[in-house]
Amino acid sequence: MKKKPEVSLRARALQCLARREHSRAELNAKLLPHVQEGEDVEVLLDDLAKRNWLSDKRAAERVMQQRRSRFGTQRITHELRQKGIAEELISAALPELKESELATAREVWQRKFGALPQDAKEKAKQMRFLQSRGFGPDVIFQVMRCESEVE
């Protein structure tokens, strides 16, 4: 059986970036296990960033676009931090996320439940669901209060 030719670190990085946007920290973590002697990941990442092929800002925007219709600010913020996105970029994105959070929470609630809870147990279940999606207590209470006013 033939052994696969070793893929260079640069080729691996480009394959990852061709699939989707990555943050610098994320790509660094993916490449570290494949570093050969004499290769420097930081130099490669600097080069990719200089060529604008690697951008934490674009990675953050991608996460926000993909997640904003299903998740709340808390969950998206947590995911951005996990991906190693800088706090300044997260802070810059927060106003935009918070602006549409209530509408998103209502939409998510409507898709999942569509009807007001009949008892305290059902209300707790609906609130836990919204909380698990990363919506804050203030938004959850607004959704539950507004939905009961609609009826």
Structural category: mainly alpha
Helix content: 55-70%
In angstroms, what separates the terminal alpha carbons? 68 Å
Give the averaged pLDDT, no decimals. 90
Beta-strand portion reads under 5%
CATH topology grouping of the domain at 7-54: Arc Repressor Mutant, subunit A
Give a short account of the largest sheet: none
Would you report the number of β strands? 0
Poorly predicted regions are: none
Q: What general outline do the C-alpha atoms trace?
A: elongated
| Secondary structure tally, helices | 8
* Top CATH class of the domain at 7-54: Mainly Alpha
Secondary-structure element string: HHHHHHHH
What is the annotated CATH architecture of the domain at 7-54?
Answer: Orthogonal Bundle
Radius of gyration: 21 Å
Describe the structure.
The protein is 69% helix and 0% strand. The protein has helices spanning 9-19, 24-31, 41-50, 56-67, 73-82, 87-112, 120-132, 137-150. Helix 4 packs parallel to helix 6 (87-112) and helix 6 (87-112) runs parallel beside helix 8 (137-150). The longest helix is centred in the middle third of the chain and has 26 residues, at 87-112. The radius of gyration is 21 Å and the shape is elongated.
Quick summary:
With 151 residues, this protein is an all-alpha fold.
Q: Which descriptors apply to this entry?
A:
151 residues, mainly alpha, Arc Repressor Mutant, subunit A
